[in-house]
Predict the 3D structure of the following.
Amino acid sequence: MKKQMKIDRLNAIPEDAEAGTVEEFMYKDGVKEILEKLDTDLVGLIPVKSRVREIAALLVVDKLRRNLGLDTSVPSLHMCFTGAPGTGKTTVAMRMGQILQRMGYSRSGHLVVATRDDLVGQYVGHTAPKTKEVIKKAMGGVLLIDEAYYLYNASNDRDYGQESIEILLNVMEENREDIVIVLAGYKDRMDKFFSFIPGMSSRVGNHIEFPNYEPEELLSIAKVMCRDLEYEMSVDAEPIFFEYIKKRMTMPYFSNARTVRNAVDRARMRAAIRLFSKAFDQSSDGMVSKTELMTLEKNDFVSVEELIERGENAIVE
């Protein structure tokens, strides 16, 4: 009977019925605007942006089908983001939340970022309330669990992380229409984590790998960061930063865009010291121009020579 009703309903829909245009939905719901902002915010990462567009396309088509009365079901929107630190995982999670909210798949689309420390307690009876509190904050939006593999401790079967995992598994299944959970971390460790928790892997419908940036892309990121802060990197400073970042990529504690941000902040500090010293120089009138306040010169950036002098294991930005 139920099957026949579906067939009758489908037959009742005219063949030439129009559900609307894809462009209309992309523009009306603001999805196009968010995707364009993702292009502006993130340099490179073409495979990541393509995957986000594919997910957005699925949601738009699903909405078009719903307009015609065709059967629809909420696709699995839980995700796994793999890659090194500073490759844009948090930014993409935030934009995905906005897309889901605009498309009506999420109430608010806000992003909550958590780690093991936020979810796992230190004594019996402490983990469940902590995990549930974080989930409560993320309801209606996106919960990004960074370095999710630390939730599971294979060497200790009494580790409290297992309790948190069981709660998350239940929420991913029972509340999948009200929360999107994104698990993030290094790919090899995430693969191992999923091998220990197969139920988690089966609930994740979208796996997106974030590649490391190339030196040219990191230079572009630095220039974008400067622009957003209303600074400008001088022409002479560009090759200094480029050589610096190439060397920095071979050293410990490198974190892609985070390292770039630290380098730009260090340059801003050095520029401030340079301008301060100049203003107090006896031969100076103490005036500082707008151009000087907005320009980061080559000596404001850490050079390769300075980097080498401080040693391979020095935490230097």
The mean pLDDT is 84.
